[in-house]
Amino acid sequence: MAARDTNNDWREIAEKDPYWGVLSVESFRGTKLSDEMAERFFRSGEQYISSLLGLINKYLTDTSIDGRALDFGCGVGRLAIPLARNFEEVVGVDIAESMLTLARANAEKARIGNIELVLSDDGLSRVTGPFDLVNTFIVLQHIPPERGLLLIRRLIELTRIGGIASLQLTYARERRFLPHEAPRALYYRRDGSAMIDIGSTAAEHPPGTVTMFDYDLNEIFAILGEFGGHPILSLPTNDDGHLGIHLIFKRAR
């Protein structure tokens, strides 16, 4: 089955529920947040960046990283804005132009002027490295691995030697999600522990659906082995039953 074009999904989500598309909390639905919800939304980004930089400074480097940072899948600026308070220059990339429009407005409201916002593509062709920090969080899980693995390699390539890459992705999900895949085929059979589809229907969820994808960690660590040094910080994540891993490491080569 061909890889789903998730870019169209996110352009539609960005038009209707941009904040919810970043953090799937019902109170973040709609195109505009109340002052209270906006404060809660952006505070979560501040907390994440503070935690990330604390881990980097504690375990990975004894020199400050405060030059250039890249936030892949920046959305409305939840992480790019606090990054800009800690770095000289931040580049935020997103596939949805309307997300970038909101990110620009949110940065202006926060009186942040050192963010460049760039429309994304699978080759990140509009992004010029290198960066001291490359970050992507709760983004790759929405991109099919056929594309996501190439993006991961590109993100690491954009990290300078000695710089830090911070990548989060998902690798498994609870069995309660099986009914969501039922329309893909008329039948299935078991082959040992594997489930094999029979009579594929090529059914697709409607445009604007939030899709989740699982990555093979063997492939991920094979890529990290080409670029990464030691140690590699590995933090477990769980997004409503979707198991993930947050990898933070220094590019060594």
Q: Nearest-angstrom radius of gyration?
A: 19 Å
Q: Mean pLDDT across all residues, rounded?
A: 94
**What is the total domain count?**
1
Amino-to-carboxy terminus distance = 35 Å
Share of helical residues:
25-40%
Pick out the low-confidence regions: none
The H/E string reads HHHEHEHEEHEEEHEE
In short:
Helices cover 33% and strands 29% of the residues.
Structural notes for this entry:
This protein is α/β, with parallel strands linked by helices and 253 residues long. It has a single domain, classed as Vaccinia Virus protein VP39 (Rossmann fold), CATH 3.40.50.150. It contains 7 helices and 9 strands. It has a 7-stranded mixed sheet with strand order 3-2-1-4-5-9-8, sandwiched between helices. β8 and β9 form a beta hairpin. α6 packs parallel to α7.
What distinguishing features does this structure have?
253 residues, Rossmann fold, two-stranded antiparallel sheet, 29% strand
Question: What is the topological layout?
Answer:
Blueprint lengths: L5 H11 L1 H5 L12 H25 L8 E5 L7 H5 L4 E6 L2 H13 L5 E5 L11 E6 L8 H13 L1 E15 L11 E7 L2 E7 L16 H11 E12 L2 E10 L2
Parallel strand pairs: 1-2, 1-4, 2-3, 4-5
Antiparallel strand pairs: 5-9, 6-7, 8-9
Helix pairs in contact: 6-7
